[in-house]
Design goal:
The protein has about 80 residues and is of the alpha+beta class. The protein has one domain: Ubiquitin-like (UB roll), CATH 3.10.20.30. About 30% of the residues lie in helices and about 25% in strands. Strands 2-1-5-3-4 form a five-stranded mixed β-sheet. It is globular and about 30 Å long.
């Protein structure tokens, strides 16, 4: 399984903070994001920042392993 975490407005749009997605051989960060976009189109449109196993990730071709943890976050500002 892949543990998926949603933060901020993405969590609000999905109504969930965490979901599990079944691991399939060959899954990448991009294919996971596409799968989630089919389920949560508005939420995933906001997802501009991603992390895999605690490390910032930009490469959508990044392969995911079973038991990976993927976080989706929206841009935020502070001050």
């Amino acid at each position: 399984m892949i543990k998926v975490l949603f933060f901020g407005p993405i969590a609000a749009a999905t109504g969930e903070r965490e979901v599990s997605v079944e691991y399939m051989t060959g899954v990448t960060l991009g294919s996971l994001k596409e799968k989630l976009a089919a389920r949560y189109p508005e939420a995933m449109h906001l997802a501009t920042m991603m992390a895999v196993n605690g490390e910032h990730a930009r490469d959508l071709s990044l392969p995911l392993a079973d038991n990976s943890e993927v976080a989706f976050m929206a841009k935020f500002s502070g001050g």
